[in-house]
Amino acid sequence: MFDHSRFTVQDALDLIESGTPPLAFGTGVAVYRAAVKRLAKTSVPSLLTGDLATIPMSLAFVDLLFSRIELQPPVSKKERDHRSQWKSRLRTIARLLEGVPVVGTTAGWDACLAAVKSLAKARGLKEQALIPITSTIRQAAVEDGREPSDLTHDWLVNIIKKSSPKRRDSLRQGAKLLDDFWPELPSQLRPSRRFGAVEIVSLKRRSLPLPPRVAEQLEAYLARRVAGKTAQGFVREVTVEKGLKAEESTNIYRQALGWLFDCLCVAGELTPEAELEIADLARLDWLCKVAVEALADEAADDGEPRVFPWQPIVAKTIYNRTSSLVTMFGFLSPSFLKQQVELRDPEAPSPEVVDAAGLQRILSVRVSNEMTYAHRTFCRALVIETDQQRLLLSMHMICWSDAQRRWKTFKQQGRHERMQTMNLCILAAILSLVVHIPFRARTVTEMALEGSRPDLSLPKGGKRIEFHIAAKRMKVPKDFDAVLEDTKLSRPRQILDWFIAGPRQELLKDPQLLPLENRRPERLFCGVGRARYNRVLVEWTEEVGLRMTTHLFRHALASVLINCCGLPLAEAANLLGNSAATAERQYVFQDLIRRRSEAIQNLANHREHLVETRHPGRRRK
After folding, report:
1. Which helix (H) or strand (E) holds 341?
2. Which of these, 441, 403, 399, lies nearest to 549 by C-alpha position?
3. How far is 434 from 425, CA to CA, in rounded Å?
4. Over residues 418-432, mean pLDDT
5. Would you say 248 and 324 are in contact if contact means Cβ atoms under 8 Å apart?
6. Domain coordinates of the chain in residue numbers?
7. Do 514 and 527 touch, CB atoms closer than 8 A?
């Protein structure tokens, strides 16, 4: 079926890596290379994707591949977006190899673009500056079946509303360029009118000003929460209950009250000019109505009508705002906590009478505090497959080998290659620590090597790393003290010594590798942020066949410690810096069937050891 393709996937990969036309992607080479390599790591029923040299690089093959992949729906929006990007990149490669235009076109658009390029050349503009017209606007128009003369201001506004922020900016830029060229373009090759200013209403909620009395009472309440509760003593006021800590924010109360007032105005219960006090807003029926409608908006699919005209907020935010309002209303208006209303929850079989606590209970069910399905599936496969466990626990050694190989030619590399090499060196050093201890991304990137109290020390002449991390940073009750030593299969100290002696010095010296404003010489990783670490980890682990974020890495390592190493849950929670309950609910996948089977088998083994032991039996009188 696919024998007519002149190129295999291996051919495409070679052209991408060498930067040979038509697959010379320039600075975008990494994402297209990763898209091709991912084929070899993907198992698809009835398709052999392991050998890239046997797979044709054609549109027909890409379409068949994803028709099989889509038989298993994505488990999250993130995975769906990731699949979409992967398919788009593979189709782009196949189109370029087959000579099919990447962007659809028509005869009218070809004529329009020829005229645009001629005008741009006369003005000294490069073809790259015309991409918003030649690619973005043309693609949107052709997909919608419109010629250049059919484009209108309203059409452009509707397209922009549905677009991502990056594409939105490109569409605006293309409209501006077409307006500049408009007087000199032939009438049949241009929109009937100029686009003019393109204003898009923000999808975010813009708060109405609170009524003056409500705003005044809100600030007085927040000041009281910060100060705490006081009582009159014999000679002075004394503090009965401490207020909020300095690092705690009170903005949640402002956000919650503003959200409630805006929702009630949209629903027609109030007018923006109403003269109110907070006690007038403390109505449980209003709060229930707003919360339920907000939940319905959050669950609605794209294109379905919504009650509130702004971007829906997630269930957790609805729960947090509602809880803040219940706390505030209960303090300022004690009768609020005694109110009861009939709540019609769309997901409940019948309405029920609830008070404020009942509303919070219903909303809490919608807020998932458990391990996600995607993370649970990943960890379940990990604790079963010994090959994946071996890969997880050897990742630092594999990454170090790759980093060493690239580091040998660091001086001869260009700027882009140097950045890739340095990212790999940083990742190898970080993995040498986190493969053994599941540190948070923030903890490991902020780890101090020098100063009055370093977080780790490297004894001279030894093969060990000593940790002395403050309890606050690890989020544990006591300071975290531990020792990590080199072994035959794992050499974390050797990796760190190599990193500190070489890549770390280059990182501090070259502002192209680490901007001066981010530099922190006292830290082990010199101020490299957790976002950069997470991005590099995702890209590299995808290449080795075990795609993970730093958060999923913590899930995975903790699950291996408990299920495969026999570590008690409480000890794993201590390493994670969480309570045992939080670790069990959110972080650790426990293979209960396997653990229970092992417990039963241990009992059977113990029973066998006792077979020869004489037991007293029933005593005779």
Report:
1. strand 341-343
2. 441
3. 15
4. 94
5. no
6. 9-98, 107-189, 212-366, 385-599
7. yes
